[in-house]
Amino acid sequence: MSDAARSRLIPEVDFDAEGRQAGFVRLFHSVHSSAYGFIPIPIVVLKNGAGPTALLVSGNHGDEYEGQVALGNLARSLEPAEIKGRVIILPMANYPAAMAGTRTSPIDAGNLNRSFPGDPDGSVTQQIAFFIEHVLIPLADVVCDLHSGGSSLMYVPCALIKRAADAERHGRQLALLKAFGSPLAYMSGGGNGTGTDSTLMGGAERAGKLALGTELGGSGQVTPAALRIVERGLRNVLAHMGILPKESRARGDGTRLLDVGGADYFVYAPENGVFEPAVELGDEVAKGQLAGRIHFPETPWAPAVAFHFARAGFVLCKRVPGRTMRGDCLFHLGTDAAA
After folding, report:
1. What DSSP element (H or E) covers 55?
2. pLDDT-based confidence at 251, cuts 50/70/90?
3. What is the predicted pLDDT for the residue at 3?
4. What is the pLDDT of residue 215?
């Protein structure tokens, strides 16, 4: 039995049919209130003849809304006659989390972007990961996984790739990143300790597919600026791949390319308390510069604990909630890349 055939999820769409289709991927889930019910994961497929396939995903984390809005807009505005090839749009990949507005699933506490390659017989989240990796990714030539900072972080809107060890693959990924055309972009080195093997982009890499991600803002909201960047970027990617006409690609002012490397790019809370940042998003900081303080309002006579940046860099990301726990990520930096 093939890996795809092992998936328990049933799509209502035919990936080989011409034109526009919209429906659900049925994830059967028997609970007290619905013995034979299914979780309806929305999916849109547009196809027009032979050509490349783009898989566009958002809602991997349910509290990241910018990509969900952008893919909904694209699903309604893109016409099959405009394209050559196929576009698969999965705007609420972790549907239970997206409906709850939470990073992880309220059903099994699953973090979809730490669940790949998934398990066809596992939890709800593991089944979704298996379906994406073993059914959808093999259909694609390029995979875009749209993220933002969610409820706890705010990013300067940017696109990203994983730095590939293979020079030829890295060159193709870098060309894709530049084609997206965001004012800021970075290459990840996995310095936050999560690695990438368990992510959707890790699944794309295992399959040898081009993969691009985003961090489009966050703090539990949608900003017009982030939405403009991603909507233009998605159409640029489709044009870069030859799915849309090359002349439809929007030219920007260029992309500032950053590296996000090892552990010293990240700043974590040293204590439980209230976070006071000393810098803002987009600031350039120096090694040893004050990053912020942790305050203890419950014992106001106790001195605040100051913490500092371990290296120089550009403030790419900042924590949003003031109340924080030891080990929470407060900042991460980027440094200009040589490409």
Report:
1. strand 53-57
2. confident
3. 83
4. 96
Q: Are residues 189 and 302 both part of a single domain?
A: no
Task: Work out the number of other CB atoms within 10 angstroms of the CB of residue 54.
Answer: 26
pLDDT digits (tens, 9 = 90+) for 255-277: 999 999 899 999 999 999 999 99
Q: Token pair 């790419």 is at which residue?
A: 316
CATH code, 226: 3.40.630.10
**CA 157: distance to chain centroid?**
12
Do 250 and 283 reside in the same domain of the chain?
Answer: no
Which tokens belong to 87? 């576009």
Q: At what angle do helices 167-180 and 224-240 cross, to 10 degrees?
A: 130
- CA distances in angstroms from 245 to 55, 140, 156, listed in the order given: 18, 19, 29
Contacts of 298 (CB under 8 A, 6+ apart): none
Encoded tokens for 192? 């936050």
Place of tokens 């990840």: 188
Q: Structural domain tally of the chain?
A: 2
Helix (H) or strand (E) holding 273: strand 273-277
Report d(CA 277, CA 291) in Å as an integer: 6
pLDDT, residue 118, reads: 97
Which residue, among 51, 95, 57, has the nearest Cα to 75 in the 3D structure?
57
Range of the domain at 79: 3-260
Do the beta carbons of residue 39 and residue 131 sit within 8 Å?
no
Which of the four pLDDT bands, split at 50, 70 and 90, describes residue 2?
Answer: confident
Domain boundary pick from 260, 278, 310: 260
Give the model confidence (pLDDT) of 18-59 as tens digits. 999 999 999 999 999 999 999 999 999 999 999 999 999 999
User: Which helix or strand (DSSP H or E) is residue 258 part of?
Assistant: strand 256-260
| Whether residue 235 is found in the same domain as residue 278 | no
Quote the CA–CA distance of 46 and 38 in Å, as a whole number.
24
Pick the last residue of a domain from 260, 285, 301.
260
